[in-house]
Design goal:
CATH topology of chain A: MetI-like fold
CATH superfamily of chain A: MetI-like
Structural class of chain B: mainly alpha
Oligomer: heterodimer
Number of helices of chain A: 14
Number of domains of chain A: 1
Largest sheet of chain B: none
Largest interface: A-B, 115 and 111 residues
Shape of chain B: globular
Distance between the termini of chain B: 21 Å
Chain lengths: ~270, ~325
Amino acid sequence: MTAHRLHRRWKTAVGVALTALMLFPVYWMINVSFTRDQDMRADPPHLIPIGGTLEGYRAVLHQQLPYLGVSFLVGLGTVALTLALAAPAGYALAKLRPPGGGALSFVLLIAQMIPGIIMAMGFYAIYLNLGVLNSVAGLILADSTLAVPFGVLIFAAFMSGIPRELTQAAVVDGAGALRTFWSVVLPVSRNALVTVSLFAFLWSWSDFVFASTLDGGGDHQPITLGIYHYIGNNNQQWNAIMATAVVASIPATVLLILAQRYVAAGVTAGAVKD
Amino acid sequence: MDNATTSLRQVARDAGGRATKALPPAPRKPAGRHGTRWAGWLFLAPVALYLLAFYAYPVYRNIELSLREYTVRSFVQGGAPFAGLGNYAKVLSDPTFGPALLHTVVFTAGSLAFQFTIGMALAVFFHQHFPLSRTLRALFLIPWLLPLIVSASTWSWMLNSDAGVVNAGLGALGVSPVNWLTSPQWSLVSVVIANVWIGIPFNLVVLYSGLKSIPPDVYEAAALDGATGWQRFRRITLPLLRPVSAITLLLGLIYTLKVFDIVWIMTKGGPTDSSTTFATWSYRLGFGNMLPAFGPGAAVGNLLIGMALVAGLIYIRVQRRQHLS
């Protein structure tokens, strides 16, 4: 018993060590964000930010807030658009099974395999003609392509597990397909809604390809471009660059803490769809 | 996974089983059911239109781009002359083509090999029960969730030749500093390192959920027969995990072919094309210059689509075969 417990404690120690090793870059980003300019090129580098500075974060507050605001706006818009398109489609594929639904699922699977850079080039050509380059709405539309096929497939997988009695009871009570979807299926699909929203938000928040091609010259640019310009114009002030990186990572970290099991569910469902 | 999806599906299966026993098999309203089948298209129509407008049309425009001589001016004014397969010929005979192909293959194979092996080892490790294992496993997801630009710029600074912490660490071990990002022989290795770091969590989570689906009594029986840990891994874990491994590798392949951000932010494909892949080459041709070469850029992109689709079709085949078995 004691030997067994000792063994388990030893495994925990190894686990903590592996996690620390894996998260070292994250720690380093935080460490550098607090490091003073004159210590930046110290040899050996300071492992903890002794006599640290908030200079980097002050720079973020002054220069990056508008970028963060745009990213939030684009993220929320992408979530709304993705849910509005994907939830009804998932319901149809799972429960109504219209003719041709299988072919559509296949197309959705293929759609996820088109590299972002190719989509970006196609979008650029279209947006240039329509005159919607450098617009927040254009970016939301483009970013939604990252999450819509994934969202439909997650919703379909989840909703096919909703007991048939539940939807049939609604039909017996006289509810149409729309009513059943809205008042019965959506409320019990909370987990799928959270999973899809989470990934739609994170993917649009992290998007760099669409931002740099479709919004590279706009007044309203997302935080990924904020960091990118920062590296380009100012490759000396690494504390400010890393402070921006830390701030840009906050949504991912908060969402991970709040919705841990949904993240794992999303990764797995994305990989092993059935 | 221990999420509600699985349990709900289970509930559904149980409920379905009971329902067929309890209810008479005659369907109540066949005509109405036929109606709802078509009503389904009302729910699908938005996505179908969306796919046409935002997938099919951009891809079509991209193919059209690759077949014409496009400049920014001809975009606006029209009149880009038809070039046939000229752009493809240009791309295939470009001195960048060979290296870009090689780098794409090395980048993809290297990333997959390392992130899969490390992900597998970690999945096996975390599959054991010990205090904190859940929390630690959740923390492992962080690198995968961070915006790629954050990871890429962090790695850029860590791998900095003069002041990077990696070279400082190597120096402490007595290894002379490496010009990670600025020397042609190391730039590709650098971007692979960063990409492996980002890919480990995905491999860990998927393989871990695969491990959880292996019934524990198989291991108990093997332990009774006196199998060592390594034997159990070789003879039980690996074979039973093969379907999940195949999916993991194929999804990793599709994802890695697409990787653009990491390479572009860390090295821009340089120095002198030493880390150029198809994805960064396509971007540089289309957007990276003052005078964009949209036609050749689109042509490179379409070659990349071809590679991704081949991988994708293999993926679908594998998954379908698994579904049948």
